């Protein structure tokens, strides 16, 4: 039988040192890439394509339960309508400010989806509502295959590891990391009576994560609760966020950034020379809109206002109703 790596799900092989799934000794259960990532934090990047992931998704038997995992930092529900028998898990709750009420998050999601069995808000890191989630999955997933799907990095593997830690005597073994494409193939596990299948996740090709070196990915990824950062705008303003982003605002408003505390935001008077010639996004906001920049930040506005956003890379800059 061909063995799979217990960390990423890729087929193990001892022939090609530079290939995925390589192990020096075929009797090992963890590939070199996972071994290095787990023990030394070294990440060997992989470009998975969404065609392969879509194949995995399309082959999920309709009799299965789908657990659709969404990071509360991203709120990406883009391909939720591909599923029938699914529940939604909003995770990484520990990163949102404590003032954010669950009811508001639930209302937001309920307006976006239909036919969803249930929605649960959790934090794997803080073990928040994990028992409740586990019981619901037991209820909806009885005698079914239970597939964890969602965007890459949304927190699927971490959740499953938390289940293993909480409800079995085994040590959690799935590799998790802040980088996209850590899980490379389906991973089948049994937890109690449950048959759980972890999957790699859909890659967001318009995410800033695809463009940044590893040390910058670390910098933009928040590790603890986001502290809202407010800026009073009177008439007009230009704000520069590191060297990734410039925001030009015409009008007056009190705007609030939800962004990693490690990133620098400063007021500038002249356009940044480099950003000015890169990607420009013209946005016309209604009152109470957020500007969302996938995997980087969201910015809460309150007034109907015009905003120009300049980005260094070809990334998504979108609007949604205020989340908070
Ligand atoms: N703060 C916080 N981080 C989380 C949580 N769950 C996952 N993460 C982090 O999110 C990143 C991606 O997690 P992972 O499980 O590998 O995502 P996957 O690609 O969906 O399997 C890792 O750095 C995790 O530590 C959570 O509940 N809170
Ligand atoms: Mg994973």
Q: Any overview of this molecule?
A:
It is a single chain. A six-stranded mixed β-sheet has the order 3-2-1-4-6-5, sandwiched between helices. Strands 7-10-14-13-16 form a five-stranded antiparallel β-sheet, with no helix packed on it. A five-stranded antiparallel β-sheet has the order 11-8-9-15-12, with no helix packed on it. It has helices at 32-40, 50-58, 102-112, 130-140, 156-167, 214-220, 273-276, and strands at residues 65-71, 86-91, 119-121, 145-150, 187-191, 194-198, 229-233, 236-241, 245-250, 253-259, 265-268, 279-285, 289-293, 297-300, 305-311, 317-321. 19% of the residues lie in helices and 27% in strands. The chain is α+β, with helices and mostly antiparallel strands. The protein binds guanosine-5'-diphosphate and magnesium ion. Magnesium ion binds next to helix 5. The site of magnesium ion has 4 residues, from helix 5.
